[in-house]
Amino acid sequence: MKDHRINELIELLHPAWKEDTDLNLLQFLQKLATEAGYQGALADLSDDTLIYHLKMRGSATTDEIPGLKKDYEEDFKTAILRARGILKD
């Protein structure tokens, strides 16, 4: 599982970092953390934060987060009925 996340992070980092070639890796990671609104220590920044930020970077703030769209329901009643198993996909 970790190999998949490492590969995904590297695939996302590579094209983004090419846009800021004047920055070293730590400077670029700090820039990404700041863009994502992360305020803690850089050593505590999770790879998930970087992955989702890189996926959503440049998107509108109203765009759906990847991976959550599959669970999205238009109305509350349908969501409750699906959660209780009354409605099937």
TrEMBL record:
Database matches in Pfam families: DUF1040 (PF06288)
Annotated protein name in UniProt: YihD family protein
Source superkingdom: Bacteria
Entries under InterPro entries matching the protein: DUF1040 (IPR009383), YihD_sf (IPR038134)
Species for this entry: Rouxiella aceris
